[in-house]
Each structure stands twice: as structure tokens, then as C-alpha cells.
Write a structure and sequence with these properties.
Oligomer: single chain
Structural class: alpha/beta
CATH architecture of the largest domain: 3-Layer(aba) Sandwich
CATH topology of the largest domain: Rossmann fold
Largest sheet: 6 strands, mixed
Number of strands: 10
Radius of gyration: 18 Å
Mean pLDDT: 78
Low-confidence stretches: 168-210
Number of domains: 2
CATH class of the largest domain: Alpha Beta
CATH superfamily of the largest domain: Alpha/Beta hydrolase fold, catalytic domain
Length: 221
């Protein structure tokens, strides 16, 4: 994904990507601010964005407090209501109507709320792989259990990205087979780590997401 843009949404500098023409599709990533178990931004959609832009006028936006979008201005705005309001402000600022909103995971909760509260803006409501709106225990409780410590360290965030972005079982099959006995990936046969470094395989998203998180940390410091 290239050609990032920024827009002011009620005083919040907001990053987004835009590409293509046709029916409007707006992509909202998952995760939420303040979480140890997510390092999400609009680049979560990097494997989908260009393909969608071949048929749609596609947008992908960093939610408030995530990616390169500014944090909330007040402590009391660290709420899902503020996330919903910011997303609504983004659509209004860009004048987007007749939108097909797409929400992944916690972003699906956002899309559901937006559609219920502002139905005049939307044509459909598309929810992907979300446990936020489902009964029972979140899969994150098992997939994300026992991360490396300390939290938010480079090793811990890499561990989170590998599982959250690709899924526990799928990730390790694609990476060539790894043992997770101690909560970290170890090399078996062409596996995940070697001599303290990483072997990238075809997972360009991991590098992009790690870089986005690193740059965002500097941006907000």
C-alpha cells in the first residue's frame, strides 16, 4: 500500500489510503488503542487493498489512536463511542455516502455501530471474522495466551503480529513448522527465527506492520 494521505477529522490528524474507482468501499481494521494484543493499522488490509481497488473506490483508514492517526485529545475519549464518532467524522469530512463499510474483528463492532446509528450513509454492512459481536470466549483468549514478556517489547509485538494477523495454526504451517513450547517461535525446518533474526518468507505485511508500529511510537512520543 502506497500513497498515504492525511485529513483533519475534528482536530484529529487521520491517515488513510485511497485507490480505484467505482462503488465506495471503506475498510476498518481491528484491534483497539491501549491493547497489548494488537498492533493494528490500515495496512492490515495490504493483501486485499489493491485487488479491491480494481473494482471499487477503496479506502482504508487508521482508527483513532492507532496506526498514524492521532490519539484522542482527552483521557475520557478512550472509548468505543469516540472510535465510532471519529469514523463517522471521517466519512462526513470526505463526503462519502452510499458506502459499503467493511470491518474486521473489533473494526466490525465499529461498522455495526456506524450502520445502526447512521444508516443514511451505507448501502451494506460487511463484518469479517469478529468475535467482538459473538457470544462466548474470544479466540484471542487462547490464541494470544502466554506472550513473551515484557509486553510491548519488539519480541512480544512480533509474536502478537504473527498470531493476530495470520492465525496460530495457519501461520506456523506457512512458516515451515515451529515449536511454541515456551511461547516463542524456534526454528525446526526453515522456521521462524535463526541466529536472533527473522526469516521473512512471503510475509511482507509483518515487516510493514512492524515498521508502522515503530514509526507510530516515535510519532506519538
Amino acid at each position: 500500500m502506497t500513497g498515504e494521505k492525511y485529513v483533519d477529522v475534528d482536530g484529529i490528524k487521520t491517515r488513510y489510503f485511497e485507490k480505484g474507482s467505482g462503488p465506495l468501499v471503506v475498510l476498518f481494521h481491528g484491534g483497539h488503542f491501549g491493547s497489548h494484543d494488537a498492533a493494528d493499522c490500515s495496512e492490515d488490509w495490504s493483501l486485499n487493498f489493491d485487488g479491491l481497488a480494481e473494482r471499487f473506490h477503496a479506502f482504508a483508514v487508521d482508527k483513532i489512536g492507532q496506526g498514524f492517526t492521532d490519539n484522542p485529545k482527552r483521557d475520557e475519549d478512550y472509548t468505543m463511542a469516540a472510535v465510532v464518532q471519529h469514523a463517522y467524522g471521517f466519512l462526513k469530512t470526505l463526503g462519502l455516502r452510499n458506502v459499503h463499510p467493511v470491518g474486521h474483528s473489533r473494526g466490525a463492532y465499529l461498522v455495526a455501530r456506524l450502520t445502526l446509528e447512521h444508516p443514511e450513509l451505507f448501502k451494506t454492512c460487511i463484518l469479517i471474522d469478529t468475535n467482538t459481536l459473538a457470544p462466548g470466549i474470544s479466540k484471542n483468549e487462547t490464541v494470544m495466551a502466554n506472550p513473551p514478556l515484557p509486553r510491548l517489547s519488539r519480541e512480544s509485538q512480533r509474536w502478537v503480529l504473527q498470531r493476530y494477523s495470520f492465525g496460530y495454526e495457519t501461520h506456523y504451517r506457512r512458516m515451515g513448522g515451529c515449536d511454541d513450547a515456551r511461547g516463542r517461535a524456534t526454528q525446526i525446518s526453515g522456521g521462524c527465527e535463526k541466529d536472533g533474526g527473522s526469516r521473512s518468507a512471503d510475509h511482507s505485511f509483518l515487516a510493514a506492520a512492524r515498521e508502522a508500529k515503530r514509526r507510530n511510537s516515535r510519532h506519538h512520543s
